[in-house]
Design a protein that fits this description.
112 residues, mainly beta, four-stranded antiparallel β-sheet, 11 strands
C-alpha cells in the first residue's frame, strides 16, 4: 500500500527558500506522475506543480513559474519541490499526491 509523507515546511521570510520532500513508501512503480498541491486558509486546494511519469516533463501554475521546481529522485523514492523567492501568497499547506494517494501535508508560512 502506497503511503506518502511530506516534510520540509516551515516559517520563512518573503524572498526566502524552502525545499519540500515527499517520501513514498510501499508499492510504487518506477515510473509515476506526482503532483504538489497547496491549500490556503479559506481557499480551495490548487495544483501547484506536476511531473509526468515517463519523461519527467513538468508543469506549473503560472503564479509559481520560474520560482518553483519539481523533481524526482527515484533511488530515494522522493519527490522534491524547491521553492525560491517565496511570497506571502505562497502560504498554505502543501500536499503531494501519487495515483490518488495523498500525504498529510506540510505547512509553509511566508511572512512579509
Amino acid at each position: 500500500q502506497l503511503q506518502l509523507v511530506e516534510s520540509g515546511g516551515g516559517l520563512v521570510q518573503s524572498g526566502g527558500s524552502l525545499r519540500l520532500s515527499c517520501l513514498a513508501s510501499g508499492e510504487i512503480y518506477n515510473s509515476y506522475a506526482v503532483s504538489w498541491y497547496r491549500q490556503a486558509p479559506g481557499k480551495e486546494r490548487e495544483l501547484v506543480a506536476h511531473i509526468s511519469s515517463f519523461d519527467d516533463s513538468t508543469n506549473y501554475v503560472d503564479s509559481v513559474k520560474d520560482r518553483f521546481t519539481i523533481s524526482k529522485d527515484r533511488a530515494r523514492r522522493t519527490v522534491y519541490l524547491d521553492m525560491n523567492n517565496l511570497k506571502p501568497e505562497d502560504t498554505g499547506k502543501y500536499y503531494c499526491s501519487i495515483a490518488g494517494v495523498w500525504g498529510q501535508g506540510t505547512q509553509v508560512t511566508v511572512s512579509s
